[in-house]
Design a protein that fits this description.
3-stranded mixed sheet, 4 helices, 168 residues
């Protein structure tokens, strides 16, 4: 067997990290400019029905890679973002959880690399058979470029099994 499981289905690590345009998530394009205007990036937005209630999960990050996110930051964005989403959803029967990416964030979508430019990450390169570490210099729809001691290394998403932040 090569590149999958015995049942023929592929595992995530067999196909690489997928790039999904952030604007394809429902309501993301309507909410990201508001969050960006406040000095943050909207990393993730999910709206899920739970009975009559809409459960909203959002993740924000600072635009400055050296800055952190505190409770006051989350509260400020929550107070601005919730009314926008309630208007878009046409209901006030909502519950919203807003968080920061956290120190142990696993990058779930390759499109996130653009939001985290300047942050130190490690990516599991299937071809190299190990972790490749560096600071995100740039990214596009196909690869991330990592800065490593003055040199740049491009790692295509199709070669990545996973990616995580590095915290010193």
């Amino acid at each position: 067997m090569f590149g999958g499981r015995a049942d023929g289905r592929l595992r995530a690590e067999d196909v690489g990290l997928e790039y999904v345009d952030l604007n394809s998530a429902p309501y993301y394009a309507d909410c990201a400019p508001l969050v960006e205007g406040m000095g943050y990036s909207l990393v993730e937005l999910r709206v899920c029905p739970q009975g009559a209630t809409k459960k909203i999960s959002a993740v924000i990050a600072p635009k400055d890679p050296a800055a952190g996110i505190g409770v006051d930051d989350c509260a400020k964005v929550h107070h601005a973002l919730l009314p926008r989403l309630e208007a878009l959803l046409g209901t006030e029967d909502t519950f919203m959880e807003l968080t920061s990416p956290g120190m142990e964030r696993v990058i779930k979508n390759a499109a996130e690399f653009a939001l985290f430019a300047g942050r130190a990450v490690r990516v599991w390169d299937k071809d190299a058979g190990g972790w490749v570490c560096g600071t995100i210099a740039s990214s596009d729809r196909n690869a991330v470029v990592l800065e490593q001691d003055g040199t740049q290394v491009s790692v295509p998403y199709e070669r990545m099994a996973k990616a995580k932040f590095i915290h010193l």
